[in-house]
Every structure is written in C-alpha cells, then in structure tokens.
Amino acid sequence: MPAADEQHLLQEAKEGSRDAYRRLVERHMRQAYNVAYGFVHDRDSARDIVQDALVRAFVALPTFRGDAEFGTWLHRIVMNLSLNQVRSITAKARREVPITGATEPGHDHERERHSTEMQVHIERALHELPTLQRAVVTLRHIEGMSTKQVSAILRCSEGTVKTHLSRGLTKLRSKLAFLQEDVS
Predict the structure, then answer these.
(1) Where would a tag sit more exposed on the chain, N or C end, judged by fewer CB atoms within 10 A?
(2) Pair 85, 105 in one domain
(3) How many structural domains is the chain composed of?
(4) Which sign, positive or negative, has the C-alpha torsion 65, 160, 82, 39?
(5) How does 59-87 read in b/e, with b if 16+ C-beta sit within 10 Å?
(6) CATH number of the domain that residue 31 is part of
(7) Phi, psi dihedrals of residue 44, rounded to the nearest 5°
(8) What is the Cα 95 distance to its own chain's centre?
(9) Distance between CA atoms of residues 61 and 94, nearest Å
(10) What pLDDT digit, counting tens, does each position of 136-169 carry?
(11) 183 pLDDT band (50/70/90 cuts)?
C-alpha cells in the first residue's frame, strides 16, 4: 500500500472509521501474527496476542502521533505483548522438558524424531537468549525483517540491532555446537 494511501486510511481511522481501521489491520495482520508466533510458538497464544494488540492499537489510535509507520507501531505492540507472555511462561516453568522419542525401527521415523529434537533444541536455545537478543534474532532471521525495520520496532539504532544480532547468533552457535558434533 502506498504511504500516502496508508496515511489517508490512518487519518480516517483516527477520525473513527472502523472500515479504515479494518483495512489497515488487514495489511499488517499476517506479519503481526508471524511476529507473535515467532516468540510464543503456539497458534492460539499468537492469535490472542494479536487480538489484544489490535484492541490496544484501536484504543490508542487517537493518540498515535505517526512518528513511525502504523505497521511498525502495531508490530511493536505485538512484540511487547509477546515478550510479556514469554517472560510469564518462563517464570512459571524454569525447568527443562526432557526429550523422549519412540524407539520404533524405521529410517523415516528416526529422521523425523531427530528433526523434531533439533527443533526443540533450537527453540530452547533461542528462548535462553537475553530478551533483546532473542527479539532481534527472531525479527531479523525468522521474520526476515531488515535491520532498519527491526531498529524501528525496537526503537534503537541499527548499530545496536547489529550488535545484539551478532551476540545472539554467537550465543546460539555456542549453545547448539553439540548438534554439529552429533552430525559429524
């Protein structure tokens, strides 16, 4: 959507047009969901987070100054709600969930089990990163956002994004080094 068209819809929405707000939301909802899912890894929780974010954005719309694009602002709300949920879940369950696999014979079953185990290890390692590093890695590499987009969402410089990305990826490599040894 061209920036001018989005600005027009934004102005209409701020004036109370629910249709304009709906059209704005339709443009950004998929990516908002992907951001939430990238943090919580649960479809229902991601939907709840996005719904909460959309309600909060609608209520706060009259005070939205437009310093950032609507999508960036909405993704910031989604990210904050997602991080709050992750912190809450992490605080409740500070234990490791053991990985168990069936011992049935079969190459395909074994490969699928191994793939699932690797995914669990990667998700655990990602969730063990400090919050900002996890956010940057998720937004940049999982969601495919540019450094500039990530810096706008996190309200920090692109240099800060690059620093946290580098540190986060280094920690992930370290935490997951044992997986490389298993492959060798």
Answers:
(1) C
(2) no
(3) 2
(4) positive
(5) eebeeeeeeebbbbbbbbbbbebbbebbe
(6) 1.10.1740.10
(7) -65, -45
(8) 23
(9) 37
(10) 888 888 778 889 988 888 888 999 999 999 999 9
(11) low
pTM score, two decimals?
Answer: 0.61
Q: What is the largest CA-CA distance in the chain?
A: 64
Backbone dihedral region of 155: left (phi > 0), alpha (psi from -120 to 50 degrees) or beta? left
Q: What angle do CA 41, 129, 81 make, to 5 degrees?
A: 50
Q: How far apart are CA 55 and CA 52, in angstroms?
A: 5
* Most confident of the following: 8-12, 103-107, 109-113: 8-12
- Cβ-proximal residues to 86 (8 Å cutoff; 6+ apart), any chain: 39, 40, 127, 134
Our measurement of the distance from residue 80's CA atom to the centroid of its chain's CA atoms, rounded to an integer in Å, reads 10
The proportion of the chain whose per-residue pLDDT surpasses 70, expressed as a percent, equals 82
- Are both 16 and 73 inside the same structural domain? yes
Cβ count within 10 A of residue 40: 19
The domain in which residue 108 lies consists of 101-184
Is the domain of 47 the same as that of 26?
A: yes
